[in-house]
Write a structure and sequence with these properties.
11 helices, Penicillin binding protein transpeptidase fold, three-stranded mixed beta sheet, mainly alpha
């Protein structure tokens, strides 16, 4: 009886291992394809669209892909300054930033800071749902390594600029520029870019509260750091 139970246990474990390998291969194939092809959507975009359509079946996302060259350098500098100052230098993970975030969260007794790099954020947005699972961080790390090994920094940043959320159903730099300022992403001024970068951690809230005191304060901080930001 015990031998039979062990046989079935090992078969189930072997099947799970094969399924995990297939899933990783599926992710690898997508990352490889996106080296020179543009993703039309992401896991996070699909989650948001589903949520919007549950309230309004006709809801659509605001999203328009634009090339890296057609996005203002002001926005690129603002996002680097706000989200990942060491982006061009690290290999996907900012260990110093992760350590500082851990210490800050430990001191506050709750999560008040993250340490995620732009590469990690992109990995999460492209492939992972909003549901938190025990293995989610591990999967995010593995996808981050794939992105960093297969793409150069400019390509990672280009995709990031085109898929991150910037409001309720608003995704990507072009849609954000048109939604908030009625201009193209190429035309964004330094001040406009700093404000958009300040919105990234909580875009749906700031979409409704555009004059929030915290947003204005963060905009000023980011604006002051932009000249030191190195972009790919």
């Amino acid at each position: 009886m015990m031998k039979k139970l062990w046989r079935w246990t090992w078969r189930i474990l072997a099947l799970l291992f094969v399924l995990i390998l297939f899933y990783q291969a599926w992710i690898f194939a997508h990352v490889w394809w996106w080296v020179d092809h543009n993703p039309s959507t992401s896991a996070f975009m699909e989650d948001r669209l589903e949520a919007l359509q549950s309230k309004n079946p006709d809801a659509e996302l605001q999203h328009q892909w634009v090339s890296y060259a057609k996005i203002s350098n002001n926005l690129k500098r603002a996002l680097i300054a706000a989200e990942d100052a060491k982006f061009v230098d690290h290999e996907g993970f900012d260990w110093e930033g992760i350590g500082k975030a851990y210490e800050k969260n430990l001191k506050k007794g709750k999560i008040v800071a993250g340490g995620s790099t732009i590469s990690q954020q992109l990995a999460k947005n492209l492939f992972l749902s909003t549901r938190r699972t025990p293995w989610r961080k591990g999967e995010e790390a593995l996808i981050t390594v794939m992105l960093e090994k297969m793409m150069d920094k400019q390509r990672i940043f280009e995709i990031y600029l085109n898929v991150i959320e910037w409001g309720n159903g608003v995704f990507g730099a072009e849609a954000a520029a048109r939604h908030y300022y009625r201009i193209s992403a190429a035309q964004l001024s330094a001040d406009q870019a700093a404000r958009l970068a300040a919105m990234v951690p909580n875009p749906r809230y700031y979409d409704k509260h555009r004059e929030a005191r915290g947003l204005l304060r963060k905009t000023e901080i980011i604006f002051g750091r932009m000249n030191d930001a190195e972009i790919p």
